[in-house]
Amino acid sequence: MSKARVAIVTGAGNGIGRASAIEFASRGMKVVVGDIDEAGGRETVGMIAEQQGEAISTYMDVSDEQSVKDAVKLALDHFGGLDIMYANAAIELQKYIMDIEVHEWDKVMNVNLKGVFLCSKYALKHFMQQRSGVILITASPHALCTYEEISAYAASKGGVVAFNRALALEAAPYQVRVNCIMPGAIDTPMVQREIAASSDPKKLRETLERMHPIGRMGRPEEVAKAAAFLASDDASFITGASLAVDGGILAKL
Ligand SMILES: NC(=O)c1ccc[n+]([C@@H]2O[C@H](COP(=O)([O-])OP(=O)(O)OC[C@H]3O[C@@H](n4cnc5c(N)ncnc54)[C@H](O)[C@@H]3O)[C@@H](O)[C@H]2O)c1
């Protein structure tokens, strides 16, 4: 029997990260569930255990270098390896540019962009030695087109997509693949918070649904299945790509 692969999923205490951790575990991977929300992380591990999967949760702040190094070390010490780094965690900031404070801008960049850099760097260090590995990144359609009041998030995701390409080039000689996913609006706590904070939550939900040519928002599990595909050997010739999992939103003018 081949050795089980080991994955770190960041932001796996909820939403897309949680669904991905569960999907990975259901395919026999051992998963390190990394999140600043420790209770959420433990809950994800519990859900995986219920399905006879194997996972461990850890406090992991992707914007903190030591915290990222510790998570990689945990994967190596606890599960004896690391094969997949899914840099998924990010935060949103809904504000007009004129109202964004510098510390708020910095926080978004630190989590969304520096976090992806740190997770990639410390996973790649290990992957270069073993001459295999997969890095996945959750980007967003906001990298390519956007609307008002979300500039910091959009800029961070644009950075992530550019970084995805550069990282893919540097990783390829070591047989390490790097890809990002662009999810449409996915019904997770991130979007649920956005809907709840709006002046007309019902209207915003309907607008978000209609925005997608497919006529609805996505489910976290639908992104998780794309991530599992990109992590698998079925995607062995795919690197440097951005895969839209967006109900057609990016196809629309
Ligand atoms: N939900 C969507 O519609 C949507 C669309 C496009 C892209 N995305 C992207 O998908 C990813 C996941 O989003 P989601 O909707 O599941 O969000 P979510 O808010 O539901 O979950 C994000 C998780 O990340 C964790 N997190 C926040 N800061 C962290 C940090 N510094 N270190 C580690 N963990 C941290 C949170 O505690 C939370 O558990 C993000 O990169 C987001 O930008 C989401």
TrEMBL record:
Membrane-traversing stretches: none
List UniProt keywords, sorted A-Z.
Oxidoreductase
Q: Which Gene3D superfamilies match?
A: NAD(P)-binding Rossmann-like Domain (3.40.50.720)
- InterPro entries, A to Z: NAD(P)-bd_dom_sf, Sc_DH/Rdtase_CS, SDR_fam
* GO MF term set: glucose 1-dehydrogenase [NAD(P)+] activity
The family classification in the record reads:
Belongs to the short-chain dehydrogenases/reductases (SDR) family.
Q: What is this protein called?
A: Glucose 1-dehydrogenase
- Please tell me the species this chain comes from: Ferviditalea candida
